[in-house]
Amino acid sequence: MKKIAILQSNYIPWKGYFDMIAAVDEFILYDDVQFTKNDWRNRNKIKTPSGVQWLSIPVRQERLDQKISETKVSDRRWADKHWKTIKQNYSRAEGFSTYSSIIAETYQQASELEFLSDINLLFIRTICKLANIQTTISLCTDYNLIGDRMSRLVSLCEQASASVYVSGPAAKSYLDEDAFLKFGITVEWMDYSGYKEYPQLYPPFEHGVSMIDLLFNLGLQYSSYMKFVKT
Q1: d(CA 224, CA 94)
Q2: 173, part of any domain
Q3: 65: which residues sit within 8 A by CB, 6+ positions away?
Q4: Is 191 part of a structural domain of the chain?
Q5: Alpha-carbon distance 177 to 124, whole Å?
Q6: CA-based radius of gyration for the chain
Q7: The pLDDT value given to residue 151
Q8: Could you tell me if 21 and 135 are in contact, meaning their C-beta atoms sit under 8 angstroms apart?
Q9: Cα(209)–Cα(194) distance, rounded to whole angstroms?
C-alpha cells in the first residue's frame, strides 16, 4: 500500500505540514498552480515578545494567472533580514543552539535562489532532514499534468502508483472521493486536532506558527509534540 499527499509548497510551514509529509510514502509539491497573494506560499509566522509576527518573502506577481513555480523574489536581501529577525527572537530558546547553524546556512543558500518554489523546497528538504523524515519528495512536473484540478490530482495518484491519497481537511468541501475510487485509490483525511501545547517562548501559546518555532523551543525533544514524526 502506497500513500501519497499532494500540496502546494509553503515557506517554512507549520508542524502539521511536516506531519503530513511523514505520514505518506511520497509527497508531491504541486506548484504548477496559480500563486495566491497573502497566503502561505511566501510567508509564515513566528513568535516574538510583542506577539505573532509574519515573515514574508518579497515576490513579483506580474500577472494574475502566474504560477507558484513562476514566481520570483523581488529583493534578495530578504534572507538576511529574516534570519536576523529569527535569531533576535529565538536565540534564548532551549533548542536554538542545536539547529541554528543549519538554519542559518539554509538562509545563506536561499539568498542565492531566484524562484520562490526553489526556496520553499530547500527549506522543506532541510527541515525533513533535521526531523529524520525520509519520505520521497517529488515535484508535480516530474509527472504528466493532465486535465482539470480534480483530474490532475487523480492522475498524479495513478501515475505515482498510489493506493491511498492523504488530503488536508480543508479539501472536504470540494474533493470528489468517487473520482479517486474509480481508480482504486482511497482518500484519507489528515487530522490536525489534538496537538499538545509545548513550552513556547512569549505566551500565549500559538500552534499555527512555523516549524522552526517547535525546533528552536524543544530542541531534540520536538518529536514528542508531533503525530507522525519520530526520532
Answers
A1: 15
A2: yes
A3: 34
A4: yes
A5: 28
A6: 18
A7: 92
A8: yes
A9: 16
Number of domains forming the structure of the chain: 1
Three-class SS state of 182: coil
pTM (predicted TM-score): 0.96
Q: Does a structural domain hold residue 230?
A: no
Residue type, 123: F
Residue 48 DSSP label: E
Domain boundaries, position 151: 3-225
- 17-39 tens-digit pLDDT: 999 999 999 999 999 999 998 89
Beta bridge partners of 56: 43
Q: In the sheet where 26-29 sits, what is the strand order?
A: 136-139, 26-29, 3-7, 164-167, 186-189
Mean pLDDT per 10-residue section of the chain, whose length is 231 residues: 97 98 98 94 98 97 94 97 98 97 98 98 97 96 90 96 97 94 97 96 97 97 92 65
In a domain, 231, yes or no: no
Nearest CA to 93 out of 227, 220, 224, 228 is that of 220
Write out the DSSP string of 155-171.
HHHHHTT-SEEEE-GGG
